[in-house]
Structures are given as structure tokens and as C-alpha cells.
Write a structure and sequence with these properties.
This protein is α/β, with parallel strands linked by helices. The chain is 50% helix and 14% strand. The chain is built from eleven helices and six strands. It has a six-stranded parallel sheet, sandwiched between helices. Helix 2 crosses helix 3. The longest helix has 17 residues. It is globular and about 45 Å long.
Length: 236
Amino acid sequence: MRGVVFLHAFPYNPRMWEEEVGYFRGRLPVLAPHYLGLSLSEAAEKVLGEMDEAGLEEAVFVGLSMGGYLIFELWRKAPERVLGLVLADTRAGADTEEGRKNRYALRERVLAEGVTFLPEALLPSHLGKATQKAKPQVWERAKALILEARPQEVAQSLLALAERPDSTPLLPGMRRPALVLVGEEDTLTPPEEAKALAKALPDARMLILPEAGHLSNLENPKAFRTALLGFLAELF
């Protein structure tokens, strides 16, 4: 059996995919695992285990940000389970030294203070200018999702992100249909980075989603879903 597996961003949870899961449920087998707090290797094992339980032999993996990093880990472990991949607002490269230091510092603060400060710390870079200006409901939803996270899980995921390997060498060998999506206002993994990612993959197409930042499925759900539907139509 084939299906779609949605992989959430940091420090969110599968509820960020509620609209997508609701739309596809009944049309295709759908999974949206929760793996905040796990290493990428542990997260990949959990995803594969949930696929086994659901009878999914292959899937199109839809990963946003950290979810994209998890797609690369899944490819390392079980490329035969990958029917196609959607890499949204993500990158193949490892963190820079500065990026790692920032994650370690954020980790220490989360362990000391909890997660109440996180929305104000993260959302200005997670959401695009158009969203911040005109869609307060998206800000509130993202904020609520962040506040659902447990501090220990956030801290563990920050370690996993900081220490993840460079996946760039994998790209030429990832011979599966791929869709690269990026918000036009994404400053964390900007369109230029997405273009380089798409260029390095053997069978990729790319779309820039208007009026969206790093959380493109929440900021412009219609454009995100339209792009996803077109891609899935090629594979199912």
C-alpha cells in the first residue's frame, strides 16, 4: 500500500498538518507522526514503525523544515520506502558553526525558562512579513502549537538539529520524483537555497509560494495544497 506521510517542523507537532491530513484522509492513506524530542535516527525509526503498523510499504514524504531533515535520514535508512519527496522550506546542508552555537544557547534557555518565551523568539523569523501584517490568526495558531511543546523535547530536538549531518552528498543519488516548495518571504531557508536544492536533485520541480515565509503550509495553505495535489497526481 502507498500513502502520504507528513513530517512536522521544529518546535511544532503534527497538528500543523491538520488541514492537509483532513483533506487527504479518505482519499489516500495518511500518517503524521510526532517525533519532537527524538534524534533524527530515532525519529526515522519511529516513522518507519508507524508505516509498518499502517501497512504502508511506500510513501510520499512531505517534510517542512525539520521534516525535510528527517526525509534525508529516512533516505539513509530505507530508500526503498520512498515513493516521492516534498521538501518544503528546508535545506540539505548542516548548521554553520554560528547556527549550532545559537541552537545550543536556545537549548540552555529552554531548559532554564521553559517554552513560554519561544513564540516571541521564533515567530518573527518563522512567519513572513505578509502573514505578520495581515494574518494575526496564523501567528496565534503557530504560537499555540509552540506552547504545546514540552521543554525537554524542545531541548532534545535542538541538539538533534545542531548535530545533524550534511545531507548534500545524498542529493544526486535521490532518484525519486521531488517537489521543492519555499515561501517567497522565507528568510531561514530562502528561495535561492531552495533553487540550489532542486537543481541538485535528479528529478525535481520547484515552486515559490507567494505571501508565505518559513511555515508556508500555514501561511498560504491554498497554494501549498494546490502544489501538493499536482505533485501527488503524478504518483498515485
